[in-house]
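Example 4.3 (complexes with small molecules)
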Amino acid sequence: MLPVAVVISGRGSNMEAIARAAQRPGAAFKVVRVVADRESAAGLARAQALAIPTSVVPFGQYPDRESFDVALAADLEASGARLIALAGFMRILSTGFVERFAGRLLNIHPSLLPKYKGLDTHARALAARDSHHGASVHYVTPELDGGPVIVQGKLRILAGDTADALSARVHALEHIIYPHACSLVASGRVQWRQGAIYFDGSPLAAPLVEESDVAA
Ligand code: GAR
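Answer. The structure with glycinamide ribonucleotide bound is encoded below.
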């Protein structure tokens, strides 16, 4: 089973979805550690409740981003993880960190990338009167939210939707697509080769898409 570390900053609902998927019979991966950048991350307690080892690399105790990234990298290497899943990790990683873990580093972002990189994605999708919105699991590259996308969860924006309502529905989709992406990588169906994604041995021309019109 592929050892996975999950890195969080907050409540950790995606981390929990990944961890629960890993605990199902036949899973191709296991979560070996959950790492937070702050003691107060609510997801730490969720991980402990699932009997997953946790560690904290407290961002505030490092003089700059580079030294934090060195400490985070050391913690992740010590965990033995071969895949790292950023799940609500709200910091920008240095190029050195990203290059060190190239092809082993995934992130989930709450938009249909390349739309709405950065923050406030739900409000921006509403303001643009988009018909659809969703979330993307992608390999991390030095360009923020810019790496190749493995899988997207896509849903229809409903009349009267608010950012909160949309966020709740997107979260439910995230909890499906992130474990799915981990499975695809762990089983070898998805591979990273020199900056490109291969799916079942062929270049992946467009992200895999899970459509959902489930109302929250
Ligand atoms: C998720 O919606 C994730 O897509 C988003 O943070 C949330 C974390 O929720 N990530 C980003 O915005 C990264 N740019 P969770 O802590 O409950 O998993």
